[in-house]
Design a protein that fits this description.
Layout lengths: L2 E5 L2 E4 L4 E8 L8 E6 L6 E6 L6 E3 L7 E6 L4 E6 L8 E8 L15 E4 L3 E6 L1
Parallel strand pairs: 2-11
Antiparallel strand pairs: 1-3, 3-8, 4-5, 4-9, 5-6, 7-8, 9-10, 9-11
Length: 128
């Protein structure tokens, strides 16, 4: 059974940093695109960042570009999201997701419905 487990969330002041990690099990994820999404209270889930199976291509939402960095370690079946220069509007539950397909076109990376597996989420709270 495929499982994604996020860790690393917490409470941080504006301007601070956090590093989220997602550990995957039940399948070798090295050839599958993976992504991070977030959902703030009362809002819809939104795309944050994604990375290709080999790790060579990354995608970012405009709101986090230049502040967040996605990376993966295929040997360890993990994907990480480094969050820098955090803002109160970054407060949300952050979800790790894995595609069920080995190939996504560039637009598909941004769509939640392209991801077949999801973690339980980790809370990030940024205080002002």
């Amino acid at each position: 059974q495929v499982q994604l487990v996020e860790s690393g969330g917490g409470l941080v002041q504006a301007g601070g940093s956090l590093r989220l990690s997602c550990a995957a099990s039940g399948r070798t994820f090295s050839t599958y695109p993976m992504g991070w999404f977030r959902q703030a209270a009362g809002q819809e889930r939104e795309f944050v960042a994604a990375i290709s199976g080999g790790g060579g291509i990354q995608y970012y939402a405009d709101s986090v570009k230049g502040r967040f960095t996605i990376s993966r370690d295929n040997a360890k079946n993990t994907v990480s999201l480094q969050l820098n220069s955090l803002k109160p509007e970054d407060t949300a539950v952050y979800y790790c997701a894995a595609s069920g397909r080995t190939y996504l076109n560039s637009r598909a990376y941004y769509r939640a419905q392209e991801y077949a597996y999801w973690g339980q989420g980790t809370q990030v709270t940024v205080s002002s």
